[in-house]
Write a structure and sequence with these properties.
Helix content of chain A: under 10%
Structural class of chain A: mainly beta
Oligomer: heterodimer
Order of helices and strands of chain A: EEEEEEEEEEE
Largest interface: A-B, 26 and 22 residues
Number of helices of chain B: 0
Number of helices of chain A: 0
Radius of gyration of chain B: 13 Å
Order of helices and strands of chain B: EEEEEEEEEEEE
Strand content of chain B: over 45%
Shape of chain B: globular
Distance between the termini of chain A: 37 Å
Helix content of chain B: under 10%
Radius of gyration of chain A: 13 Å
Number of strands of chain A: 11
Largest sheet of chain B: 6 strands, mixed
Shape of chain A: globular
Distance between the termini of chain B: 41 Å
């Protein structure tokens, strides 16, 4: 049973560019949440997708957007990258009705130069 | 607003000894969940233990146990018989009325031979 997978593992972008990160949830899971983890900090909630809709959003600007596909996989898009967007981006999935039990992927390390 | 505070940035323990990591939280909800996650250098966030607020009995998972003090809003993690593989960042997290996990800043645990 495959766990949560994320791609790419790491990437380097230039300030002002746009980036897309991808996540495939654990088998049977239909809800995907995205978190940003800056160096030396705990993860911060960006948003959650359920039934292809954004269900809740954390305190992040509109430059951060997402999408969920019919197969429950998800993308995180960040536009107009800033140096401060450099972080580990974690995806987590959960079963319907058990949102408290979130399984995390290995993350994507984004470096903005 | 929910908050999670970990006041110990770093802790050290000798192999085979016991260590306790501290966490305090704040929430206005009566129904919530508390978690301890482990994040080794591989970056994968691994669930260590979960505590439901409505349960009076402290959760245990093998060498890991918690001391849940609901009135004091305290949730500490005890690791018994520490092993080298326990070395990692440990995050305390709260899940209550929303869909997001709220994390503390983490405690770095060093295990010495």
């Amino acid at each position: 049973d495959a766990g949560v997978t994320q791609s790419p593992t790491h990437l380097i972008k230039t300030r002002g560019q746009q980036v897309t990160l991808r996540c495939s949830p654990k088998s049977g899971h239909d809800t995907v949440s995205w978190y940003q983890q800056a160096l030396g900090q705990g993860p911060q909630f960006i948003f959650q997708y359920y039934e292809e809709e954004e269900r809740q959003r954390g305190n992040f600007p509109d430059r951060f957007s997402g999408h969920q596909f019919p197969n429950y996989s998800s993308e995180l898009n960040v536009n107009a990258l800033l140096l401060g967007d450099s972080a580990l981006y974690l995806c987590a999935s959960s079963l319907p009705g058990t949102g408290y039990e979130q399984y995390f992927g290995p993350g994507t390390r984004l470096t903005v130069t | 607003a929910q908050t999670v505070t970990q006041s110990q940035p770093e802790m050290s323990v000798q192999e085979a000894e016991t260590v306790t990591l501290s966490c305090t939280y704040d929430t206005s909800e009566s129904d919530y969940y508390l978690f301890w996650y482990k994040q080794p250098p591989s970056r994968q966030m691994i669930l260590v233990i979960r505590q439901e607020a409505y349960k009076q009995q402290n959760a245990t998972e093998n060498r890991f146990s918690v001391n849940f003090q609901k009135a004091a809003k305290s949730f500490s993690l005890k690791i018994s018989d520490s092993q080298l593989g326990d070395a990692a960042m440990y995050f305390c997290a709260l899940y209550d009325s929303g869909y997001a996990l709220n994390f503390g800043k983490g405690t770095s645990l060093l295990v010495t031979p």
